[in-house]
Please model this.
Amino acid sequence: MKKKMGGAGLYLVLILLLVTAIKVFNPPAATIPTKNFTQFVTEIQSDNLKSIKFDGANATFITKDEKTYETVLPEEARVNFYNNYLKEKVDQKELQVVGTPMKETPIYMEWIPNILILGVFIFFWYYLIKQSQGGSKMNSFGKSKAKVVKQDDKNLISFKDVAGLQEEKEELGEIVDFLKSPKKFINMGARIPKGVLLVGPPGTGKTYLSKAVAGEAKVPFFIMSGSDFVEMFVGVGASRVRDLFETAKKNAPCIIFIDEIDAVGRKRGAGLGGGHDEREQTLNQLLVEMDGFGTNEGVIVMAATNRADILDPALLRPGRFDRTIYVGVPDVKGREQILGVHSKNKKLASDVDLKYIARRTPGFTPADLENLMNEAALLAARRNENKIFMEDIEEAEIKVQAGPAKKSRVVSEEERKLTAVHEAGHAVVSTCLSNADPVHMITIIPRGMAGGFTAYTPEEDTSFITKGQMKDRIVSLLGGRVAEALVLDDISTGASNDIERATHIARAMVTKYGMSEKIGTITFGSDEGEIFVGRDLGRSKDYSEHTASEIDKEVGNIINEAYEKAKTLLSENMEKLLAVSDALLEKETLDKHDFEKIMKGEDIEHDKEYAHDEKIEDKDLSEEAKKIVEEKSSKENKDLEDK
Ligand code: ADP
Ligand code: ZN
Model:
């Protein structure tokens, strides 16, 4: 608006300049004498004039003695000038009048811009009011952005596509039955749940499961994310909720799926600095809608979250989300089935063992597993293979686990040595421990954030871990750092994640699992998920400062003990540690077989063409490591002599 005014102003100035220029350069040929208005009127009244020519406020008049004059009519005189002074004389043909002194633009024309501006204001005002009330038909802001997933035969998923989750499927079976034939249930007077809350970490198949319910029942599926409700415009959320439910009711029976419901359904008044009004309005509207639509309208609301603990309790009351289904990370059997589902339309080579892959991927969510099979297929395609081989899957696995390999990253020699010794440290220490998982692969190719990577094959999924296992876990985590310090007398930042994890385990042993003799079998603090700012700020510790320092001491003891153990083990196995480090420097990646060979003291295959010729040399070694190596070799010599 302001800009336009500026533009118009500029044009005005330009036009004025032009006009003055024209006036200056083209002066009128002859100037006509002027008379003032009073004189003009007097002339008219004394019948002295022959003709008058009006040009707006300017009048040129000729007297009866053929003299021409000019005059300017004052603004207020123009309106009824003709009627007051001239009409009679013109009618009597005593005076000739050309033009009119009346304004060309009538008064109301001046009002038009004002009226327009007023109109615009009223429009906006009306629009905003409508917005906050919602349900406006003239705009699309209030419309829900729900995506309708049409269940045609091609992308129809049903329960048979959902691997594992047997109990969950059984629980949802009732809802499927209801959606299929609501009449039956209505006649029985049964109360069907309105809302089902699916709780679980991301990628565990909450959306997938809901879609399968819709597919199984062959009903429309409306999907919307909680964050779509909450937007810039105040009041949009509430109106979107209303709109979504209106649409759903028209399409009943159907399923509404709200992803990330925590975006709207967080505990009211839990945010910092007071509640978020917009969110609260949206949540209230959601509650109203869920209360409002009758049980038998055939709309089932399914919602997903990974934070059930931060949801407003009002949402979980009967008649709202009164069913909660936990969807967890799948176990080994579930993983195998999920791999089966996602390799259905992929060609697998005969060496592919899904059971083995499932065993190697604890903690993978269904989304990760789907991604894994997809990556494997991509790799196979890139290699122009016509089938997916085990090798492709194994490479894909590492990619999914730790980000794509960065072969191109330039790594200095120093860094390579440090990483090799670090990873060798992890691997060697864990093979010396009775409770650690076997090493599956070691690599010093940087992946994602990690400089290197040691992968283990867990023997089996266990639902609990023993104290011995946890202690060994800490020892093998610290193995990397210990090896760096012991062999190279230099430590890197690469171990920070290991140390963090080790500390976390040690702390959990003391405060959560009651595994410390000194502290006792007590749980300290409530460690329910990570801290949520709004909720936990005011949380008080349920133990004293004294206990806190005791806990810290005990955690420190566990870590120190583990550190010493790792150091002893690595000192005893120094030559193996160096052999593994050298092999890593040479080949970058060692598989299980190579690693086992080295640990047995056997030689591995060397590929001259691709091998790096770096080695950990004597000059790299720390004093301590040198001493250990020397002692070992002299002892071996002595043993030989003794024989
Ligand atoms: P969430 O909604 O929990 O974040 P999704 O429902 O988006 O997770 O699941 C991600 C992907 O994982 C889905 O696209 C699906 O292919 C796969 N998936 C999830 N659960 C299963 C399952 N039980 N069986 C097979 N595939 C699954
Ligand atoms: Zn490490």
Observations:
- Residues 422, 426, 480, 495, 498 surround zinc ion (ligand 2) (CB under 6 Å).
